[in-house]
Amino acid sequence: MKKVFLKPNKQESIQRNHPWIFSGAIAKADEGIEEGDLVEVFDASGQKIATGHYQIGSIAVRILDFGAKPMAENLLYERICNAFNLRENLNLIREDNNCYRLVHGEGDFLPGLVVDIYGDTAVIQAHSAGMHFERYKIAEALVNIPHAGIRNVYYKSDTTLPYKANLDPRNDYLIGNFNGGEAVENGLVFNIDWLKGQKTGFFIDQRENRMLLEKYAKQKNVLNMFCYTGGFSVYAMRGGALRVDSVDSSAKATAITEANIKINFPGDDRHSTFTEDAFKFLDNVLLGQYDLIILDPPAFAKHRGTIKNGLIGYRKLNYKAFQKIKKGGTIFSFSCSQAITKDMFRMAVFTAAIQAGRKVRILHQLTQPADHPVDIAHPEGEYLKGLVLYVE
Ligand code: SAH
User: Fold this and answer.
1) What ligand 1 atom has the least distance to the C-alpha of 224?
2) 99 is annotated as an active-site residue
3) Is the overall model pTM greater than 0.85, yes or no?
Protein backbone atom coordinates (compact mmCIF):
# COMPACT_ATOMS: atom_id res chain seq x y z
CA MET A 1 0.00 0.00 0.00
CA LYS A 2 1.29 3.47 -0.86
CA LYS A 3 2.18 5.84 1.99
CA VAL A 4 1.47 9.49 2.73
CA PHE A 5 3.50 11.46 5.31
CA LEU A 6 2.14 14.48 7.15
CA LYS A 7 3.92 17.68 8.10
CA PRO A 8 4.69 18.18 11.82
CA ASN A 9 1.60 18.81 13.98
CA LYS A 10 -0.79 18.11 11.12
CA GLN A 11 -2.10 14.95 12.82
CA GLU A 12 -4.18 16.90 15.33
CA SER A 13 -7.46 16.96 13.41
CA ILE A 14 -7.09 13.22 12.82
CA GLN A 15 -6.69 12.67 16.55
CA ARG A 16 -10.07 14.40 16.86
CA ASN A 17 -11.49 11.89 14.32
CA HIS A 18 -11.95 14.36 11.51
CA PRO A 19 -12.03 12.23 8.34
CA TRP A 20 -10.36 14.64 5.88
CA ILE A 21 -6.68 15.39 5.29
CA PHE A 22 -6.13 18.55 3.27
CA SER A 23 -3.38 18.64 0.67
CA GLY A 24 -1.55 21.38 2.60
CA ALA A 25 -0.98 18.97 5.52
CA ILE A 26 1.00 16.51 3.42
CA ALA A 27 4.82 16.63 3.50
CA LYS A 28 5.36 13.88 0.93
CA ALA A 29 3.70 10.93 -0.72
CA ASP A 30 5.14 7.74 -2.21
CA GLU A 31 6.09 7.92 -5.84
CA GLY A 32 3.53 6.57 -8.26
CA ILE A 33 0.63 7.25 -5.90
CA GLU A 34 -2.59 7.54 -7.89
CA GLU A 35 -5.98 9.06 -7.44
CA GLY A 36 -8.31 6.60 -5.72
CA ASP A 37 -5.50 4.52 -4.14
CA LEU A 38 -6.02 3.17 -0.66
CA VAL A 39 -3.14 4.72 1.29
CA GLU A 40 -1.58 4.54 4.76
CA VAL A 41 -1.10 7.87 6.53
CA PHE A 42 1.89 8.53 8.82
CA ASP A 43 2.52 11.48 11.11
CA ALA A 44 5.83 13.37 11.12
CA SER A 45 7.25 11.02 13.77
CA GLY A 46 6.68 8.03 11.48
CA GLN A 47 3.69 6.62 13.39
CA LYS A 48 0.87 5.21 11.24
CA ILE A 49 -2.33 7.00 12.13
CA ALA A 50 -4.93 6.23 9.45
CA THR A 51 -5.92 4.48 6.22
CA GLY A 52 -7.98 6.15 3.52
CA HIS A 53 -8.64 7.01 -0.11
CA TYR A 54 -6.17 9.31 -1.82
CA GLN A 55 -7.38 12.07 -4.11
CA ILE A 56 -5.80 14.92 -6.02
CA GLY A 57 -7.39 18.16 -4.86
CA SER A 58 -7.98 20.10 -1.70
CA ILE A 59 -9.16 17.06 0.29
CA ALA A 60 -6.21 14.75 -0.30
CA VAL A 61 -7.22 11.78 1.87
CA ARG A 62 -10.67 10.65 3.00
CA ILE A 63 -10.08 8.47 6.05
CA LEU A 64 -11.82 5.11 6.28
CA ASP A 65 -10.01 3.76 9.32
CA PHE A 66 -8.20 5.52 12.17
CA GLY A 67 -5.19 4.12 14.01
CA ALA A 68 -2.12 1.99 13.33
CA LYS A 69 -3.68 -1.43 12.73
CA PRO A 70 -4.21 -2.73 9.20
CA MET A 71 -7.64 -1.89 7.81
CA ALA A 72 -10.06 -4.82 7.98
CA GLU A 73 -10.67 -6.55 4.63
CA ASN A 74 -14.44 -6.38 5.06
CA LEU A 75 -14.60 -2.80 6.40
CA LEU A 76 -16.93 -1.58 3.64
CA TYR A 77 -19.37 -4.43 4.17
CA GLU A 78 -19.34 -4.00 7.96
CA ARG A 79 -19.94 -0.25 7.73
CA ILE A 80 -22.77 -0.74 5.23
CA CYS A 81 -24.42 -3.35 7.48
CA ASN A 82 -24.07 -0.97 10.45
CA ALA A 83 -25.69 1.78 8.41
CA PHE A 84 -28.58 -0.56 7.60
CA ASN A 85 -29.01 -1.52 11.27
CA LEU A 86 -29.28 2.15 12.18
CA ARG A 87 -32.05 2.71 9.59
CA GLU A 88 -33.87 -0.36 10.91
CA ASN A 89 -33.62 0.98 14.44
CA LEU A 90 -34.96 4.32 13.22
CA ASN A 91 -38.00 2.37 11.95
CA LEU A 92 -37.57 3.71 8.43
CA ILE A 93 -38.00 0.34 6.75
CA ARG A 94 -41.69 -0.48 6.78
CA GLU A 95 -44.51 -1.61 4.49
CA ASP A 96 -45.53 2.05 4.10
CA ASN A 97 -41.97 3.43 3.83
CA ASN A 98 -39.41 1.78 1.57
CA CYS A 99 -37.21 4.73 0.63
CA TYR A 100 -34.44 6.03 2.86
CA ARG A 101 -30.81 7.10 2.73
CA LEU A 102 -28.76 4.04 3.62
CA VAL A 103 -25.30 5.62 3.51
CA HIS A 104 -24.67 9.31 4.15
CA GLY A 105 -20.94 9.65 3.51
CA GLU A 106 -18.95 10.83 6.51
CA GLY A 107 -22.08 10.53 8.67
CA ASP A 108 -21.85 6.75 8.22
CA PHE A 109 -18.03 6.69 8.38
CA LEU A 110 -17.90 6.10 4.62
CA PRO A 111 -16.56 9.38 3.24
CA GLY A 112 -17.24 9.84 -0.46
CA LEU A 113 -20.20 7.44 -0.61
CA VAL A 114 -23.93 8.08 -0.79
CA VAL A 115 -26.50 5.31 -1.15
CA ASP A 116 -30.26 5.90 -1.41
CA ILE A 117 -32.75 3.03 -1.34
CA TYR A 118 -35.98 2.94 -3.35
CA GLY A 119 -37.76 -0.34 -2.63
CA ASP A 120 -35.46 -3.10 -3.87
CA THR A 121 -33.14 -0.71 -5.75
CA ALA A 122 -30.06 0.99 -4.33
CA VAL A 123 -28.74 4.08 -6.12
CA ILE A 124 -25.03 4.74 -5.45
CA GLN A 125 -23.27 8.06 -5.82
CA ALA A 126 -19.48 8.17 -5.48
CA HIS A 127 -17.96 11.53 -4.58
CA SER A 128 -14.37 10.28 -4.61
CA ALA A 129 -12.21 8.28 -7.00
CA GLY A 130 -11.61 5.74 -4.22
CA MET A 131 -15.33 4.95 -3.90
CA HIS A 132 -15.59 4.84 -7.70
CA PHE A 133 -13.00 2.08 -7.83
CA GLU A 134 -14.76 0.22 -5.01
CA ARG A 135 -18.15 0.38 -6.74
CA TYR A 136 -18.46 -3.34 -7.55
CA LYS A 137 -17.46 -4.30 -4.02
CA ILE A 138 -20.04 -1.83 -2.66
CA ALA A 139 -22.75 -3.24 -4.95
CA GLU A 140 -21.96 -6.79 -3.76
CA ALA A 141 -22.08 -5.62 -0.15
CA LEU A 142 -25.48 -3.98 -0.68
CA VAL A 143 -27.18 -7.07 -2.08
CA ASN A 144 -25.66 -9.14 0.72
CA ILE A 145 -27.03 -7.11 3.66
CA PRO A 146 -29.16 -9.63 5.56
CA HIS A 147 -32.93 -8.93 5.25
CA ALA A 148 -32.47 -5.67 3.33
CA GLY A 149 -34.04 -7.09 0.16
CA ILE A 150 -31.83 -5.05 -2.19
CA ARG A 151 -31.84 -6.65 -5.65
CA ASN A 152 -30.80 -3.91 -8.06
CA VAL A 153 -27.87 -1.55 -7.74
CA TYR A 154 -27.67 1.49 -10.01
CA TYR A 155 -24.45 3.47 -10.17
CA LYS A 156 -24.92 7.19 -10.86
CA SER A 157 -21.81 9.25 -10.38
CA ASP A 158 -21.40 11.23 -13.59
CA THR A 159 -22.17 14.50 -11.79
CA THR A 160 -20.63 13.78 -8.38
CA LEU A 161 -17.11 12.59 -9.20
CA PRO A 162 -14.37 15.21 -9.49
CA TYR A 163 -14.36 15.89 -13.23
CA LYS A 164 -10.61 16.44 -13.29
CA ALA A 165 -10.09 12.84 -12.26
CA ASN A 166 -11.04 11.74 -15.77
CA LEU A 167 -12.61 8.54 -14.52
CA ASP A 168 -15.14 8.39 -17.30
CA PRO A 169 -17.89 7.04 -15.07
CA ARG A 170 -20.81 5.40 -16.79
CA ASN A 171 -24.23 5.43 -15.16
CA ASP A 172 -25.36 1.82 -15.18
CA TYR A 173 -26.80 -1.07 -13.26
CA LEU A 174 -23.97 -2.87 -11.52
CA ILE A 175 -26.40 -5.57 -10.38
CA GLY A 176 -29.96 -6.30 -11.58
CA ASN A 177 -31.94 -3.84 -13.66
CA PHE A 178 -34.83 -1.37 -13.78
CA ASN A 179 -37.81 -2.34 -11.65
CA GLY A 180 -40.37 0.36 -12.40
CA GLY A 181 -39.10 3.19 -10.25
CA GLU A 182 -41.81 3.46 -7.59
CA ALA A 183 -41.18 4.04 -3.91
CA VAL A 184 -43.37 4.59 -0.88
CA GLU A 185 -42.73 7.31 1.69
CA ASN A 186 -45.00 7.42 4.72
CA GLY A 187 -47.75 5.75 2.73
CA LEU A 188 -47.47 8.09 -0.26
CA VAL A 189 -46.32 6.71 -3.61
CA PHE A 190 -43.62 8.47 -5.63
CA ASN A 191 -42.44 7.75 -9.15
CA ILE A 192 -38.70 8.08 -8.89
CA ASP A 193 -36.55 8.58 -11.96
CA TRP A 194 -33.05 7.73 -10.82
CA LEU A 195 -31.99 7.35 -14.45
CA LYS A 196 -32.61 10.96 -15.48
CA GLY A 197 -33.66 12.77 -12.29
CA GLN A 198 -31.55 15.09 -10.15
CA LYS A 199 -29.23 13.53 -7.56
CA THR A 200 -30.47 9.98 -6.94
CA GLY A 201 -33.97 10.92 -8.17
CA PHE A 202 -35.64 12.11 -4.98
CA PHE A 203 -34.88 14.41 -2.05
CA ILE A 204 -35.26 11.97 0.81
CA ASP A 205 -33.78 14.57 3.17
CA GLN A 206 -37.07 16.51 3.31
CA ARG A 207 -39.15 13.53 4.50
CA GLU A 208 -39.73 14.72 8.07
CA ASN A 209 -40.18 18.33 7.02
CA ARG A 210 -42.85 17.20 4.56
CA MET A 211 -44.58 15.37 7.45
CA LEU A 212 -44.59 18.58 9.47
CA LEU A 213 -45.98 20.52 6.52
CA GLU A 214 -48.85 18.03 6.23
CA LYS A 215 -50.00 19.12 9.70
CA TYR A 216 -50.10 22.76 8.65
CA ALA A 217 -51.95 22.24 5.36
CA LYS A 218 -55.58 21.74 6.44
CA GLN A 219 -57.93 24.21 4.73
CA LYS A 220 -54.98 26.19 3.41
CA ASN A 221 -54.07 27.62 0.00
CA VAL A 222 -50.59 26.22 -0.48
CA LEU A 223 -47.80 27.33 -2.80
CA ASN A 224 -44.93 24.86 -3.26
CA MET A 225 -42.01 26.65 -4.91
CA PHE A 226 -39.18 24.60 -6.48
CA CYS A 227 -41.44 21.55 -6.31
CA TYR A 228 -39.27 19.03 -8.27
CA THR A 229 -41.05 15.69 -7.56
CA GLY A 230 -43.87 17.45 -5.74
CA GLY A 231 -43.00 15.91 -2.38
CA PHE A 232 -44.35 18.81 -0.31
CA SER A 233 -47.40 19.11 -2.59
CA VAL A 234 -48.46 15.48 -2.14
CA TYR A 235 -48.19 15.77 1.66
CA ALA A 236 -50.14 19.06 1.59
CA MET A 237 -52.91 17.33 -0.41
CA ARG A 238 -53.11 14.53 2.16
CA GLY A 239 -53.14 17.14 4.93
CA GLY A 240 -56.40 18.54 3.57
CA ALA A 241 -55.24 21.65 1.70
CA LEU A 242 -57.93 23.63 -0.13
CA ARG A 243 -55.63 24.19 -3.13
CA VAL A 244 -52.02 23.37 -3.90
CA ASP A 245 -50.01 25.17 -6.61
CA SER A 246 -46.61 23.69 -7.50
CA VAL A 247 -43.97 25.73 -9.32
CA ASP A 248 -40.69 24.67 -10.94
CA SER A 249 -38.74 26.14 -13.83
CA SER A 250 -38.14 22.66 -15.24
CA ALA A 251 -40.91 21.12 -17.34
CA LYS A 252 -39.59 17.67 -16.44
CA ALA A 253 -40.04 18.49 -12.76
CA THR A 254 -43.61 19.75 -13.10
CA ALA A 255 -44.45 16.64 -15.16
CA ILE A 256 -43.09 14.39 -12.36
CA THR A 257 -45.08 16.40 -9.81
CA GLU A 258 -48.28 15.96 -11.82
CA ALA A 259 -47.67 12.23 -12.13
CA ASN A 260 -47.10 11.91 -8.38
CA ILE A 261 -50.27 13.85 -7.58
CA LYS A 262 -52.23 11.61 -9.96
CA ILE A 263 -50.97 8.34 -8.43
CA ASN A 264 -51.93 9.44 -4.93
CA PHE A 265 -55.03 11.53 -5.63
CA PRO A 266 -56.59 10.40 -8.90
CA GLY A 267 -59.30 12.75 -10.14
CA ASP A 268 -58.62 15.32 -7.42
CA ASP A 269 -58.73 18.83 -8.90
CA ARG A 270 -57.20 20.76 -5.99
CA HIS A 271 -53.74 20.78 -7.60
CA SER A 272 -52.13 22.80 -10.43
CA THR A 273 -48.58 23.03 -11.75
CA PHE A 274 -46.76 26.03 -13.22
CA THR A 275 -43.55 25.70 -15.23
CA GLU A 276 -42.08 29.09 -14.41
CA ASP A 277 -39.20 30.87 -12.76
CA ALA A 278 -39.92 31.08 -9.03
CA PHE A 279 -38.96 34.75 -8.68
CA LYS A 280 -41.17 35.80 -11.61
CA PHE A 281 -44.04 33.66 -10.36
CA LEU A 282 -43.93 35.36 -6.94
CA ASP A 283 -44.01 38.79 -8.60
CA ASN A 284 -47.41 37.92 -10.06
CA VAL A 285 -48.90 36.42 -6.89
CA LEU A 286 -51.57 38.58 -5.24
CA LEU A 287 -51.15 39.69 -1.66
CA GLY A 288 -52.89 37.15 0.55
CA GLN A 289 -53.42 34.59 -2.22
CA TYR A 290 -51.59 31.89 -0.23
CA ASP A 291 -51.63 31.02 3.48
CA LEU A 292 -48.78 28.52 3.29
CA ILE A 293 -45.66 28.88 1.11
CA ILE A 294 -42.78 26.42 0.77
CA LEU A 295 -39.43 27.75 -0.45
CA ASP A 296 -37.02 24.89 -1.10
CA PRO A 297 -34.62 26.19 -3.74
CA PRO A 298 -31.50 24.46 -5.07
CA ALA A 299 -28.26 25.32 -3.22
CA PHE A 300 -27.68 29.02 -3.96
CA ALA A 301 -24.10 28.75 -2.64
CA LYS A 302 -22.38 25.64 -3.94
CA HIS A 303 -19.05 26.50 -2.27
CA ARG A 304 -17.48 29.11 -0.01
CA GLY A 305 -16.68 31.48 -2.85
CA THR A 306 -20.37 31.98 -3.58
CA ILE A 307 -21.66 32.54 -0.03
CA LYS A 308 -22.23 36.26 -0.56
CA ASN A 309 -24.30 35.86 -3.71
CA GLY A 310 -26.06 32.87 -2.21
CA LEU A 311 -27.20 34.95 0.77
CA ILE A 312 -28.47 37.67 -1.56
CA GLY A 313 -30.50 34.98 -3.36
CA TYR A 314 -32.06 33.69 -0.12
CA ARG A 315 -32.83 37.24 1.01
CA LYS A 316 -34.55 38.15 -2.26
CA LEU A 317 -36.56 34.96 -2.42
CA ASN A 318 -37.77 35.22 1.16
CA TYR A 319 -38.50 38.94 0.70
CA LYS A 320 -40.83 38.16 -2.20
CA ALA A 321 -42.63 35.50 -0.17
CA PHE A 322 -42.97 37.81 2.86
CA GLN A 323 -44.45 40.49 0.58
CA LYS A 324 -47.19 38.19 -0.65
CA ILE A 325 -48.09 35.79 2.18
CA LYS A 326 -51.49 36.24 3.81
CA LYS A 327 -51.65 37.84 7.25
CA GLY A 328 -51.31 35.01 9.74
CA GLY A 329 -49.73 32.78 7.10
CA THR A 330 -46.83 30.37 7.37
CA ILE A 331 -43.65 30.00 5.33
CA PHE A 332 -41.46 26.89 5.26
CA SER A 333 -38.11 28.29 4.13
CA PHE A 334 -35.06 26.11 3.42
CA SER A 335 -31.42 26.27 2.43
CA CYS A 336 -29.48 23.15 1.44
CA SER A 337 -26.22 25.07 0.87
CA GLN A 338 -23.58 23.40 3.02
CA ALA A 339 -21.38 26.53 2.91
CA ILE A 340 -24.11 28.70 4.45
CA THR A 341 -24.48 28.29 8.20
CA LYS A 342 -27.71 28.24 10.17
CA ASP A 343 -26.94 31.73 11.50
CA MET A 344 -26.15 33.20 8.10
CA PHE A 345 -29.37 31.81 6.66
CA ARG A 346 -31.40 33.11 9.58
CA MET A 347 -29.87 36.55 9.17
CA ALA A 348 -30.78 36.60 5.46
CA VAL A 349 -34.38 35.66 6.29
CA PHE A 350 -34.50 38.23 9.10
CA THR A 351 -33.28 40.96 6.72
CA ALA A 352 -35.96 39.94 4.22
CA ALA A 353 -38.66 40.20 6.90
CA ILE A 354 -37.53 43.70 7.88
CA GLN A 355 -37.38 44.83 4.25
CA ALA A 356 -40.88 43.49 3.61
CA GLY A 357 -42.14 45.17 6.78
CA ARG A 358 -43.58 41.96 8.23
CA LYS A 359 -43.50 40.78 11.84
CA VAL A 360 -42.18 37.23 11.84
CA ARG A 361 -41.84 34.53 14.47
CA ILE A 362 -39.89 31.26 14.19
CA LEU A 363 -42.13 28.28 14.98
CA HIS A 364 -39.71 25.47 14.12
CA GLN A 365 -36.05 25.16 13.24
CA LEU A 366 -35.59 22.25 10.88
CA THR A 367 -32.68 20.20 9.68
CA GLN A 368 -31.86 16.94 7.92
CA PRO A 369 -33.40 13.69 9.19
CA ALA A 370 -31.71 10.88 11.10
CA ASP A 371 -30.88 8.86 7.99
CA HIS A 372 -28.60 11.79 7.06
CA PRO A 373 -26.55 11.69 10.29
CA VAL A 374 -23.78 14.14 11.11
CA ASP A 375 -20.53 12.74 12.53
CA ILE A 376 -19.87 15.04 15.51
CA ALA A 377 -16.21 15.12 14.45
CA HIS A 378 -17.25 16.36 10.99
CA PRO A 379 -19.61 19.32 11.33
CA GLU A 380 -19.31 19.91 7.57
CA GLY A 381 -21.83 17.08 7.20
CA GLU A 382 -24.64 19.35 8.37
CA TYR A 383 -26.18 21.08 5.35
CA LEU A 384 -29.98 21.32 5.45
CA LYS A 385 -31.52 24.25 7.33
CA GLY A 386 -35.15 25.19 7.54
CA LEU A 387 -37.29 27.77 9.32
CA VAL A 388 -41.03 27.57 9.78
CA LEU A 389 -42.15 31.16 10.04
CA TYR A 390 -45.42 32.64 11.27
CA VAL A 391 -46.02 35.92 9.50
CA GLU A 392 -48.32 38.60 10.97
N1 SAH B 1 -38.56 20.76 -2.93
C2 SAH B 1 -38.08 19.63 -3.70
C3 SAH B 1 -36.62 19.72 -4.07
C4 SAH B 1 -36.22 20.98 -4.80
S5 SAH B 1 -34.83 20.77 -5.80
C6 SAH B 1 -38.39 18.34 -2.96
O7 SAH B 1 -38.91 18.34 -1.84
O8 SAH B 1 -38.08 17.29 -3.53
C9 SAH B 1 -34.75 22.32 -6.59
C10 SAH B 1 -35.69 22.49 -7.76
O11 SAH B 1 -35.67 23.88 -8.11
C12 SAH B 1 -35.34 21.76 -9.04
O13 SAH B 1 -36.41 20.93 -9.41
C14 SAH B 1 -35.10 22.84 -10.08
O15 SAH B 1 -35.61 22.51 -11.37
C16 SAH B 1 -35.85 24.00 -9.51
N17 SAH B 1 -35.38 25.34 -9.87
C18 SAH B 1 -34.11 25.80 -9.97
N19 SAH B 1 -34.08 27.10 -10.23
C20 SAH B 1 -35.37 27.54 -10.29
C21 SAH B 1 -36.01 28.79 -10.51
N22 SAH B 1 -35.30 29.90 -10.72
N23 SAH B 1 -37.35 28.84 -10.48
C24 SAH B 1 -38.07 27.73 -10.26
N25 SAH B 1 -37.54 26.52 -10.05
C26 SAH B 1 -36.21 26.41 -10.07
Assistant:
1) 1
2) no
3) yes
